[in-house]
Design goal:
Order of helices and strands of chain A: HHHEEEEEHEEHEHEHEHEEEHEEEE
CATH topology of the largest domain in chain A: Elongation Factor Tu (Ef-tu), domain 3
Number of helices of chain B: 15
Helix content of chain B: 55-70%
Oligomer: heterodimer
Radius of gyration of chain A: 22 Å
CATH architecture of the largest domain in chain A: Beta Barrel
Number of helices of chain A: 9
Shape of chain B: globular
Number of strands of chain A: 17
CATH superfamily of the largest domain in chain A: Translation factors
Number of domains of chain A: 3
Bound molecules: FE2/S2 (inorganic) cluster
Distance between the termini of chain A: 36 Å
Structural class of chain B: mainly alpha
Largest sheet of chain A: 6 strands, antiparallel, barrel
Number of domains of chain B: 1
Helix content of chain A: 10-25%
Shape of chain A: globular
């Protein structure tokens, strides 16, 4: 009964009080009792509760999530990382999912069941209303940047970030000129087909099928994009889909002389600790600052800079004082990855440490 | 074997190494013991809270005062032995106690944590006693050395602080850390902020954001002490004002206690050279030169948040405080060996009276003609010439 009560209470609380105030109240009333009473609200972690499960196609489900107060406001096109200890081994599995829809208080992920995908199978099998999941705050650079003419090119489940951006235009006053190209196998397997077809009249939406006998006549192959969109070179392109598809499109765009600076490609991989550490790391380092939900990349040539300096060079501020490892102000914890220099267990001193793995996740 | 002079650079390197060795030794030893310690203090704090609030609630009329010392103990442990030390990151490296990690911790005190960490850890602890850099030289508008330009407010600094600021000392910190004090001085002082450290706004907060943080930090304490608990008392047939006043008394005591503790642990003279930070050895020495300990037992030290081991705290701000009494012995040995200043007051009372004497001296204009006492580093440098 208590759980039912919480299920109705949580959406209400987040709606009425808002995440900002909720964070204020919860963080200041955190103790053993409150943590035990409601670990969804009284927690230090970003979590989300499944509030609805929808069947989209035979093998695709949409999960509507209600994140708690630690979640930052997402932008259409961004993704979250989901972490589940599937085998109860203490080493959880992490996967990224694009937010297919962003509502006032909830976000959705649309998951296609992949026969050998651990997480997608698990979600399809066990994902129920009321279940609480560990998620990350929204991430990703695949977001709309106020361009006037754009073209989405997507295939398979790569449609989700494109659809999410596309959908957000509905509520916008100044709508950009949008074209939507989507490649799917069959109409039945087409995620968001109905929604796309409804809006088809206003914008040019092309769905092309690779395994369908009566292909609609509007359907173009990825190698005919310029015929479908004669003004393609004036459009900003958002590209997302399986690797082979992306590669095909990329080389095609290159061939037709498209300016690749106008291209956004979504690639996400879950963050995994790189286990091997090296004495002096040479190569690009991608750093994620969890508390601020900021990601930046340290250039290979900046490897001799301390983490603090490298962050500043990227316009990211760390708390700091002495810059020489004495005062402890910059101290923070490493979630995954490796560094060289001043370290104390999981704690690192960014002003006196150097990155030593390609991925760093910092608290 | 004692060295007569510290002045050569090589000597400073040795000094640096000697202090680093102590740090490394204790870092390597961090573990279970420290986790147990901080959890124990939190447990005591809870027990005192229950007893304190319970007595205040049950006891009729003035007898409720019996609960005040307990409530004071709770608030005091939370504010300094737990809060101040945790916010230095002393417990950040231990897993399983996120409640004591500096960036997750919420203070049961009316002070915004992030702004505090920046000002206190990042500025005060780095530029200790540096003129126009260290905000703790002034805690508002105090004139604590001859270099600060005198104005008429300073004549009254002793009574103003003793009667008005210290009873609400913790409430003053947000004003210092989020910029309100600067505005006051700009408006009221003929030379504005000359002679004072100013808010650096490293987080680039807008004025509204700073105000919001300031208010939220205060209201979380007020809501609890002057809203929720008095109301609970009212609902259960006990007196609203009884609880309100008792809580207020504990609040004031706590503020006063902390004010006197922190004021008594820094000698505001001599001022330290700004470039001490360039050499780690010199930085250690400048920390020694600007902090002063006072004696107390282990238990008393907890009530002072181990700030009576100010010297050790300033050398190693992010080592768990309960280790300072042990560290002190090792630090004293190094100081003896290299002839370095290690300053101690006999007891709290002497520390306080010294400090108030100093405030009194500098409330007058003529003190401006008193020559500045040179820092140890400067003396050494001129000896070497
Ligand atoms: S900034 Fe002082 S330790 Fe890193």
């Amino acid at each position: 009964m208590l759980n039912n009560m919480k299920n109705t209470l949580h959406p209400w609380v987040i709606k009425k009080i808002g995440r900002d105030w909720l964070e204020y109240v919860a963080s200041n009333t955190m103790n053993v009792a409150t943590e035990a009473f409601d670990p969804f609200i009284w927690t230090y972690d970003c979590k989300a509760k499944i509030v609805e499960v929808r069947q989209e196609t035979a093998d695709t489900k949409t999960f509507v999530l209600l994140p708690n107060q630690h979640f930052k406001q997402p932008l259409p096109g961004q993704h979250i990382e989901l972490t589940v200890d599937i085998d109860n081994t203490g080493t959880p599995v992490a996967r990224c999912y694009t937010l297919s829809e962003i509502q006032q208080d909830t976000v959705s992920i649309t998951v296609k069941q992949n026969p050998d995908g651990k997480m997608s199978n698990w979600l399809h099998k066990y994902g129920r209303e009321g279940m609480i999941l560990d998620i990350s705050s929204p991430r990703g650079q695949f977001v709309y940047r106020d361009q006037e003419k754009i073209l989405f090119i997507s295939a398979g489940s790569g449609i989700t970030p494109c659809y999410s951006i596309y959908k957000a235009f509905e509520t916008q006053i100044n709508q950009p000129d949008v074209a939507f190209y989507y490649r799917s196998r069959t109409p039945d397997e087409t995620i968001f087909r109905q929604q796309l077809e409804q809006t088809k009249n206003d914008n040019s939406v092309d769905i092309s099928y690779s395994r369908h006998s009566e292909e609609e006549k509007t359907s173009y192959l990825p190698s005919q994009l310029i015929e479908a969109y004669p003004d393609i070179k004036e459009r900003h392109i958002y590209l997302c889909g399986p690797e082979p598809f992306k590669n095909d499109v990329l080389s095609y765009l290159d061939d037709i002389g498209y300016d690749l600076n106008n291209l956004e490609v979504e690639h996400f991989a879950p963050l995994q600790a790189t286990s091997q550490s090296v004495d002096s790391f040479t190569g690009e380092v991608s750093v994620l600052l969890k508390s601020k939900n900021i990601r930046f990349v340290i250039d290979a040539k900046d490897n001799d800079k301390t983490l603090l300096e490298a962050a500043e060079a990227n316009g990211v501020q760390f708390e700091h004082g002495c810059r020489s490892g004495m005062c402890g102000t910059c101290r923070t914890n490493l979630v995954s990855g490796e560094v060289n220099g001043q370290q104390l267990g999981k704690s690192i001193y960014p002003c006196a440490t150097y990155p030593a793995s390609a991925e760093l996740v910092i608290e | 074997m004692s060295h007569s002079s510290t002045s050569s650079e090589q000597n400073y390197d040795e000094i640096h190494q000697a202090f680093e060795d102590i740090k490394t030794k204790h870092r390597d030893d961090l573990g279970e013991k420290d986790i147990r310690y901080i959890k124990k203090i939190r447990r005591y704090s809870r027990i005192f809270e229950v007893i304190g609030r319970g007595l205040i609630w049950i006891m009729p009329g003035p007898l409720a005062l019996i609960g005040v010392p307990f409530l004071f103990l709770h608030r005091n442990l939370e504010a300094i032995e737990i809060g101040h030390n945790v916010l230095h990151g002393q417990y950040d490296s231990f897993e399983g106690i996120p409640q004591f990690h500096s960036k997750k911790f919420r203070w049961k005190a009316p002070i915004d944590e992030a702004a505090w960490r920046q000002e206190h850890n990042g500025i005060h602890h780095v530029h200790t006693n540096v003129y126009e850099k260290d905000p703790d030289l002034n805690h508002g508008f105090l004139r604590t050395n001859a270099q600060v330009p005198h104005n008429k407010w300073h004549y009254f600094q002793v009574p103003i602080y003793l009667f008005f600021v210290y009873p609400a000392m913790l409430y003053n910190f947000n004003a210092q850390n989020l910029g309100a004090n600067d505005k006051f001085r700009e408006r009221r002082f003929p030379l504005g902020n000359k002679g004072y450290a100013t808010f650096e706004n490293t987080e680039e907060l807008t004025e509204d954001a700073a105000k919001k943080r300031h208010q939220r930090a205060v209201w979380r304490v007020w809501a609890k002490e002057y809203g929720v608990f008095p109301l609970l008392a009212l609902l259960t047939g006990s007196g609203f004002f009884k609880v309100f006043l008792a809580n207020m008394l504990a609040d004031v005591l706590n503020n006063y206690w902390i004010a006197l503790t922190i004021q008594a642990t820094h000698l505001t003279e001599p001022l330290q050279p700004e470039d001490a930070l360039k050499s780690k050895g010199k930085w250690y020495v400048s920390q020694l030169d600007s902090s002063v300990n006072f004696k107390g037992t282990r238990k008393q030290s907890i009530l002072w948040g181990h700030l009576n081991y100010q010297v050790e705290h300033h050398l190693y701000p992010d080592l768990p405080s309960h280790r300072y009494p042990d560290i002190a012995i090792e630090v004293q040995e190094v100081c003896k060996k290299y002839n370095l200043p290690y300053k101690t007051n006999k007891n709290w009372w002497q520390a306080i009276s010294n400090y108030i004497g100093l405030l009194w001296r500098f409330s007058f204009k003529r003190s401006a003609s008193v020559p500045l006492e040179p820092s140890f580093l400067e003396k050494e440098a001129s000896n070497a010439k």
